[in-house]
Amino acid sequence: MKLLGIVGTNAEKSTNRTLLQYMKRHFAPKAEIEIFEIDQIPLFDKPDTKEAPQKIASLAAKIHASDGVIIATPEYDHAVPAALLNVLEWLTYCENGLDDKPVLVVGASYGCMGTLRAQNHLRQVLDAPEMKAHFMIGQGFLLGQSLAAFDDQGNLTRVDDQKALDEYFANFAAAYELS
Fold first, then answer.
1. Mean pLDDT for the stretch of residues 4-28
2. Which bin fits 95, alpha (ψ -120 to 50), beta or left (φ > 0)?
3. Helix, strand, or coil here: 143?
4. Three-state DSSP class for 157?
5. Which residues form the NADPH-dependent FMN reductase-like domain (predicted)?
6. 9 near 84, Cβ under 8 Å?
7. Please, are residues 48 and 94 in contact by the beta-carbon 8 Å criterion?
8. Which domains occur in the chain, in start order?
9. Nearest-angstrom CA–CA distance, 169 and 36
10. Does the pLDDT value for residue 179 go beyond 70?
11. Under DSSP, is residue 172 helix (H, G, I), strand (E, B) or coil?
């Protein structure tokens, strides 16, 4: 199984990046996960030519070559970060959205609720017809109090979080027959 993990923020430090890095190591026997950074994506400006910037064209090619996509979203003011929305706007305007790929939604947040509201917001965006995304309704991985969730090597320390992530990943793989 080949998956593309998108870090849903342009922040230099992010527990969502740490979560994706953990998933890459943890699920290595089951999946090859490539991590994609969005910090160099220009602001969406609706070009008349519909020509995507090189970084978006590269992302679209990686999405097309993958079996599925993981989006790790932080929650800023109860919503998806503007940087992630920017990427999704480029993908739907200049490319084939998420190219009918299964999308696994995860998120890490400093607060106790994880990224519940941001994940709900992200699912609304992913549900747009132009997005061409497939995702499991009502399921996500919510990592709350993420500053205390990882050890110095970037491993999840709480057994309940590990079990929840393992179960969610297994359900995703089974739902889309990716394993």
1. 97
2. beta
3. strand
4. coil
5. 1-138
6. yes
7. no
8. 2-175 (3.40.50.360)
9. 19
10. no
11. helix
DSSP 44-80: P---TT-PPPHHHHHHHHHHHHSSEEEEE---BTTB-
Residue holding tokens 């499991």? Answer: 136
Contact 41, 55 (CB under 8 A): yes
- The residue behind tokens 């923020």 is 9
Which residue is associated with the tokens 């990943």?
Answer: 169
**Helix H segments across the chain?**
15-26, 54-65, 82-94, 116-126, 159-175
Classify residue 1 by its DSSP letter: -
- Contact of 164 with 141, CB cutoff 8 Å: yes
Structure tokens at 84: 């992630």
Q: Return the residue matching tokens 């490539």.
A: 34
Orientation of helix 54-65 relative to helix 82-94, angle to 10°: 80
How confident is the model over 93-144, as pLDDT tens digits?
Answer: 999 889 899 999 999 999 888 899 999 999 999 999 999 999 988 778 999 9
